[in-house]
Specification:
Elements (H helix, E strand, L loop, with lengths): L2 E4 L20 H25 L3 E4 L16 H4 L1 H13 L3 E4 L12 H20 L7 E5 L7 H13 L3 H4 L2 E4 L7 H11 L3 E4 H7 L5 H10 L9 E4 L17 H10 L6 E4 L5 H14 L9
Parallel strand pairs: 1-2, 1-8, 2-3, 3-4, 4-5, 5-6, 6-7, 7-8
This protein binds a DNA duplex through helix 4.
Length: about 300
DNA sequence: TCTGGTCAAGGTGGT
DNA sequence: ACCACCTTGACCAGA
């Protein structure tokens, strides 16, 4: 089991997702930002390696405006060597990498324009992972999308659209359950139709109203991940106390985390902690796992 | 130098 | 029809 956190490191003094307003776009500025972001990414990866954090989500902002029409720069060519070096670092230390496009990327939108922009963004993210020379275990996680008042129709459209995607995208896309539209059963259904692995978001599962035995869910999830996909990826978070349901906790809730480990115990997977204090909680999680998940030892919950 | 309104992009749900 | 929310940091104009 590898533990990870998304996109930002609060210890390393370096912002690796520097972007800027569209209004201040220029070729020079873009190239400077990409260079900075790649340097920061390397520093964060090295921090992670030093601390045994072997799972990391790379920000969508690594190359600002990469899928926007304003971007005419051949960043793939200019930074080819830098991407390759980063990929070598990742592979040399056995790091697991994921990416997660944000809310604007909707594969099942009825709007062709939204679809076109979504595919462009997904292609960009796949391109980053390809330039790094990463294998099919580096994934891009995507929600099913909107419902549009016709869930069955919207799911069918997702499946149709998925089938039209390029091979390089299909090998990387995984489907993640969300908190109100598409639950694990919906994702499993789509997975059967497409062959896409299902990424289990344990926090969304609970918000969606999932009460089932986590071990049973994990058993279903695990089957969707083939040999080339690597271990299943799981997103974990806990509820911020006193906040709107769905708000991510500031730091890891040890009891809840240990309960989750216990509930999923027979399964091996890589876990992304979506918790606000990022690497701090990842380090705490590693400690807790080390203390509690050694074979033959009872859990101390 | 500091501050707070604003930022490419979509969808849902409340009014 | 319109607006707040999701979720977040950081850009950047104006003080």
């Amino acid at each position: 089991m590898k533990i990870g956190y998304p996109c930002i490191n609060r210890t390393v003094q370096c912002s690796g997702n520097k972007t800027f307003r569209l209004r201040s776009y220029s070729r020079e500025r873009l190239i400077r930002a990409i260079g900075n972001n790649l340097d920061c990414l390397e520093r964060v990866l090295r921090f992670n390696i030093e601390h045994g954090i072997l799972f990391f989500r790379i920000t969508s902002d690594l190359v600002p405006f990469a899928s926007h029409p304003v971007c005419k720069v051949n960043w793939q060519g200019i930074f080819k060597e830098r991407f390759r070096q980063l990929g070598d670092l990742i592979k040399a230390h056995g790091l697991r990498i994921s990416m997660h496009p944000d809310q604007f990327i909707v594969l099942n939108s009825p709007d062709e324009g939204v679809l076109r922009r979504s595919i462009a963004e997904l292609e960009y993210q796949a391109c980053v992972l390809d330039l790094m020379g990463l294998d099919g275990s580096a994934k891009i996680q995507l929600h099913v999308g909107g419902v549009y008042g016709d869930k069955a129709g919207a799911m069918a459209r997702f499946i149709r659209r998925w089938r039209g995607l390029s091979r390089s995208l299909r090998r990387r896309l995984v489907i993640e359950n969300d908190e109100k539209n598409y639950g694990i059963d919906d994702c499993l259904f789509i997975s059967r139709k497409t062959g896409a692995p299902v990424l289990f978001d344990a926090f969304h599962y609970r918000l969606y109203g999932g009460l089932g035995d986590l071990a049973l869910v994990m058993a279903d999830i695990q089957k969707t991940w083939g040999a080339k996909d690597g271990l299943p990826m799981v997103d974990y978070s806990s509820q911020k106390k006193g906040a709107r349901p769905g708000a991510h906790a500031q730091s890891i809730d040890r009891k809840d985390f240990l309960r989750f480990l216990e509930a999923t115990r027979p399964f091996d997977f890589d876990m992304m902690l979506e918790i606000k204090d990022k690497e701090r909680s990842a380090l705490m999680a590693l400690k807790l796992i080390h203390k509690n998940r050694c074979p033959g030892q009872p859990m101390q919950v």
